[in-house]
Specification:
178 residues; alpha+beta; four-stranded antiparallel sheet; 10 strands
Length: 178
């Protein structure tokens, strides 16, 4: 089961157990948070889509980490003006582990292990068919091509030899008036 939530001006696809880095949320480590702005909830077979948000749907999570991302370098450069400005920025984030997804009308699906498909009975093939397959597999690819070429009628070979593309002649240059 997964959901699409809206937080910090962005949309995130989350499922239970995921750790998602969101825009900074003012809360301490281990605090519980809930996201009520749920855009979509799906269990794999049926989906509910909000307009824009689903009523009665929420995603629960737990704050795992508060931190800052990698430094982004910003350079403003004006050529031939002897002007260049450098600046750096590190964005604050909150890492949240998703603990549950709740939505009215969408039930989680239990994953059922599929039974292995029954093997086809090998007795349906006759012994002669088995021998023919083994012979074809034993032949080398070059030998198979030679056999196929030998089976073609002689007339087809002659037609293929006659149908050659004519050589192209170079185009005549046009005189330009100066």
């Amino acid at each position: 089961m997964y959901a699409v939530i809206f937080n910090g001006g962005k949309q995130y696809r989350v499922s239970e157990g995921d750790v998602v880095k969101l825009e900074k949320i003012e809360s301490g480590l281990g605090d519980k948070v809930t996201f009520d702005e749920v855009l979509l909830v799906s269990n794999g077979q049926e989906s509910k889509i909000g307009t824009p948000y689903l009523k009665g749907a929420s995603v629960a999570g737990e704050v795992v980490e508060q931190g800052r991302g990698k430094k982004i370098r910003i350079i403003k450069f004006r050529r031939r003006k002897n002007s260049m400005r450098r600046q750096g920025h590190r964005q604050y984030f909150t890492a949240v582990r998703i603990t549950g997804i709740k939505a009215e009308g969408v039930k989680p699906i239990e994953l059922v292990a599929k039974k292995p498909a029954a093997k086809k009975a090998a007795a349906t093939k006759t012994p002669a068919e088995k021998v023919v397959k083994k012979e074809v597999a034993a032949k080398k690819p070059a030998a198979v091509k030679k056999e196929a070429a030998a089976k073609k009628p002689a007339a087809a070979k002659k037609e293929a030899a006659v149908k050659k593309a004519p050589a192209k002649k170079p185009a005549a240059k046009k005189e330009s008036k100066k």
